[in-house]
Specification:
Elements lengths: L1 H15 L10 H15 L4 E2 L4 E4 L19 E4 L4 E20 L7 E8 L6 E6 L12 E20 L4 E11 L18 H5 L4 E9 L2 E5 L14 E3 L4 E6 L12 E6 L18 E11 L5 E9 L6 E8 L8 E7 L1 H5 L5 E7 L4 E8 L2 E7 L5 E7 L8 E9 L12 E12 L1
Antiparallel strand pairs: 1-8, 2-4, 3-8, 4-7, 4-8, 5-6, 5-7, 9-10, 9-13, 11-12, 12-23, 13-22, 14-19, 14-23, 15-16, 15-22, 16-17, 17-18, 19-20, 20-21
Length: 429
């Protein structure tokens, strides 16, 4: 009934103007006319740079294929619900249209929605083609206009196509004025707050990066941490402090693996701390963490006990192992470092979890024994995940964040990065 009324309305206008010549005008042609009119109104919009792209699944046709300028490559994922590809503009931008090219777009209609927002957990729909679909008449880019909004993320949610349940996108372009509401190093999603405020980082320093994902340098202690955010590396997203690191990024002289990682300091934050793990005093780190994305190695470390000496080096690394560039599904929870690689002959799998899943852990060191616990939502121990053999490291400190593993010699690719979130971080001595 809604479509009939729309057709009748346009027909009545045409008759009134004396221009009516036939009864064959349909909804598709009227919407094409509206699109042309909207395109004229948005003529000042320019193509925006896309910082990175990710998806919650693929069949080997990667999300990055939609940004290579080649209509013969694609991202594909099978399923009529829940399959999506997300574009990160790096900071909030004013956007007004999205251009999409569909695989076999001249043979079938693709069903989809375009959703946008400044947090991936709070997106809203600006284009709904779940029922109507794409034109079904071209493999070239099709333009989808909407009222200008400020957003950092653009997500295409797929619902299959008119022939089967596959979602297959060959190219994406995003357009707008580009002037955002919170971009740059002072931006973020925390309403003026910073990761420092969220996590209480007085007794931590941030070892990380300055510059851009494709051109950066390693910084041993990021200056002005109390006010620091950066929409590439370290920022707030819906009350999570996000740590992102790309392949090929610069790193310290002692490691070929890039990181964006917190290093524990003394309580006043003035000096490096070193504590003894061989005494009866229990040293503890509790942190709520989630891993959202893996780099091409499939490995990310998100918590450590490190020793000052080369003999013990990283006493323990709490990390995960999955597939290259994995963004969803199950991964292995792994214990690496001295306590397994030296004392047990290799890294050890101690469980599994899903990417994007919130986890609450406690890492302890006492009487030369390292333990990892699972905690409930109140912070109480409910399970001992790992207990080490004795390791007598005496000059230790905790680390937490995003430390890519097995990434030495990798070159920068916009789609090759790891992403870790931390919402709570505490140490006790």
């Amino acid at each position: 009934m809604k479509n009939y009324r729309k057709t009748l309305s346009y027909s009545f206008i045409a008759i009134t103007l004396g221009l009516f010549t036939s009864c064959t005008t349909d909804i598709e042609s009227l919407e094409q006319l509206e699109s042309i009119q909207n395109s004229d109104a948005k003529a000042s919009a320019s193509k925006l740079n896309i910082s990175s792209v990710s998806a919650n699944g693929d069949d080997g046709n990667r999300p990055s294929n939609t940004l290579d300028g080649n209509l013969n490559t694609r991202w594909s994922s099978n399923g009529r619900t829940g399959k999506y590809i997300t574009y990160d503009l790096g900071s909030s931008k004013k956007i007004s249209s999205v251009k999409l090219a569909w695989f076999k777009g001249d043979q079938r209609k693709a069903y989809f929605k375009i959703r946008v927002g400044n947090s991936t957990s709070n997106l809203f729909t600006v284009v709904d083609r779940k029922s109507q679909g794409s034109s079904g008449s071209t493999r070239q880019l099709e333009t989808y206009n909407f009222n200008e909004v400020s957003a950092r993320y653009v997500r295409i949610s797929g619902f299959g196509n008119s022939s089967n349940s596959w979602n297959s996108l060959t190219e994406t372009e995003i357009y707008g004025s580009g002037d955002g509401d919170g971009g740059g190093d002072g931006g973020g999603d925390g309403g003026g707050n910073t990761p420092y405020d969220l996590l209480g980082l007085k007794n931590w320093k941030l070892n990380g990066l300055s510059g851009t994902p494709s051109n950066n340098s390693y910084v041993d202690a990021i200056p002005n941490l109390s006010s620091y955010t950066n929409n590439n590396w370290f920022f707030l997203d819906n009350n999570w402090a996000i740590f992102q690191v790309w392949a090929g990024s610069d790193t310290s002289s002692g490691s070929g693996n890039p990181r964006m990682e917190l290093r524990e300091l003394t309580a006043n934050g003035n000096n490096n701390i070193f504590w003894d793990g061989t005494t009866s005093k229990e040293h503890r780190m509790k942190w709520k963490v989630r891993v959202d994305r893996l780099p091409s190695s499939g490995k990310v470390c998100f918590g450590q006990i490190h020793d000052k000496t080369d003999f013990f080096d990283d006493v323990i690394r709490v990390q995960c192992q999955g597939n290259a560039n994995q963004t969803s599904g199950s991964v292995k929870l792994r214990i690496n470092g001295y306590v397994t690689e030296e004392l047990e002959g290799g890294g050890k799998t101690v469980g599994s979890f899903n990417l994007g899943e919130e986890m609450y852990f406690e890492l302890t060191y006492k009487n030369s024994v390292v333990k990892l616990y699972e905690l409930n939502s109140s912070g109480n121990r409910i399970k001992t995940i790992f207990t080490s053999q004795k390791a007598a490291a005496k000059q230790n400190y905790f680390k937490a964040g995003n430390y890519l593993q097995s990434m030495k010699g990798k070159s920068y690719k916009s789609s090759d990065f790891g992403r870790v979130g931390i919402s709570k971080l505490e140490v006790f001595h």
